[in-house]
Amino acid sequence: MRRLFLGLAVLCVGPTVRPSGAQDTSAIDRGVRIGIVYRPGVRPGMVVLPVHAAALDSVRTIMSRDLDYSDRFELITLPGGDSIRVTTAPTTRPATGGAAAATTLNYPLYQALGADFAVGVTPGPGDSAIVTVHDVAAGGVRREVRARLPALKDPGFRLVVHQLADRVLEAALGVGGTAATRILFVMDGKVYTIDQDGADQKLVSSSDHQAMSPAWAGDGRRFSYMEFWQGHGRLFVQEVASGKRAPVATTGQALDFTPAFSPDGKTLAFSRATEEGTDLYTVNFKDGCCLQRLTVGRFYDNLSPTYSPDGQRIAFVSTRAGLPQIYVMAADGTDPQLFAPFDYGATGSSNAPEWSPDGQTVAFHRDVGGTLQVFVLDVRTRAVRQLTSVGRNEDPTWAPDSRHMAFVSDRSGYRQLWIIDVETGRIRPLLQKSGARLPAWSPRLPETASSTP
Amino acid sequence: MKRLPLLLLSGLVAVAFAACGGKQPETTPTPTGPNADSLRAAQQAHDDSMKAAQEEADRRAQAEAKRRQEIADSLAAMGRGTEAVKTLLATMIHFDYDKALIRGGDASVLDQKVAILQANSALRIRISGHCDERGSDEYNLALGNRRATAAKQYVVSHGIDASRIETVSYGEERPLAPGHDEESWAQNRRDEFEILSGGENLKQP
Known about the structure:
Chain A is built from six helices and 29 strands. Chain A is mainly β. Helices cover 56% and strands 12% of the residues of chain B. Chains A and B meet through strand 13 and strand 14 of A and helix 4 and strand 3 of B.
């Protein structure tokens, strides 16, 4: 069944393949609908070809893991491991680069192994690498991507490889990946960043003040978080590239927490706790002006704002009905209404909403029988679905593909970060450390977001 | 009075002795001088006065010592008073899960703080609200804020100027008890009271 479906689909895209020089050929594919679309339960087979250049070994390793973690392929291990090279040696026309050589791949054989795609990494001129995406069923090269590779020890190396993996995914399936992303989280009162594949953990908050609630800006170049300063909560905005941070004006005189960037990157919404209770505010953090109060609770609390991707609405937590529940309002604070339905007196507290990047769902956690579970709310139908059931699970954060989600779980015996693919239910630990919490998944990171000094 | 007949009698005895003894030399009665009795009496008086003086000196020394002791005691008492008041002031109050209502038993704890604040007009305090680890991390900041505010409202409603009390919340970020059971959670759901200023010499209410 799967073979047939894929075989038919890839026929449509065969003609787009055009042998060319060693250039990024994405321009050729632009505007062309890729025939293969993802179907739950049907995952195309993918082979990551062995590399001959030792320097590219780590590229292949990182990229294979990224493609596996995309949860969109069935990664196929070649029989006999890497010892078998099921292709003729690229010696015929070396002058034209990898494309011509790669077309000599023994496609019928890979097809027999169950592969729909094959990816090869070959060294290019200078310090570059050429990544070739083969469409096995069509029997040709789907796309070639060339990238300059920083040195292995360069802090920007991994990000470049992750971005190559995302381009492979884009070339194969026409969807955006999450390989070139990082996750911010809090551990022992400090903010850390880690690549989505669990590598390269780094401390990013620099002071001794206890920190909470990191949040990314939509461009992936900045993030915000809160620190306790003498009992008050002060918000900071920090640049990824330089590591420089600046306090957000108007914050720090009260308990200000849970910052959230508006999608246009101009406004920061946050919660402010005073003796009147906790309410939502916005501030133009760039100009340090225009503090606006969005809610007036007085006898109840409003907190944890999250913007819809179009910037028009804010979902948040309110205790207006007693226990905290998920509400939504216009971004200027008007028209507040219940968002995630609940049974009064029966449904437990609901907290920590995060709007998905595609705008279709809001993830949050809810108290179920004394422990917390992750739920997703369908924005259009307002139907609520429970996603987790093992252990305590909380503080979900969406990957940019709106399909993967990081959250805190104690399912392994201690609280740490996990990643779930909402489509397949596949789950993996992000790191093996106790005490990591309050994760925030980045958007797709721009190339300059690398921490190269 | 008593001595006169005795003197007379001794004179008569002497006259009788002379009369019987023939030639009787003219004798004058030996000067009686201070006799043993009077010496004894004088000695007694001297001793008495010396003793009295000694007693007086002892008494004064004792009084001085007592006075010094009293000063020392009162100084110690003052120190103890400040410490006692501080201890009283730092007594925490606790809350039910996900609640910010002052429990009945804790109202008397807050009454003590009202009295201390009334007796020490320069005293300023900070109330920090805390939560257990069960709730949501970020929601607990709002809940801790409610708990701190609830205690402040109680104190202010009993006549204390609101400007003398600051409130903060640490949510579940600063637990007292490290455990993951109800015993620890109950300890962690609390308001703490700390002195901001004016706590050097505290009077007992």
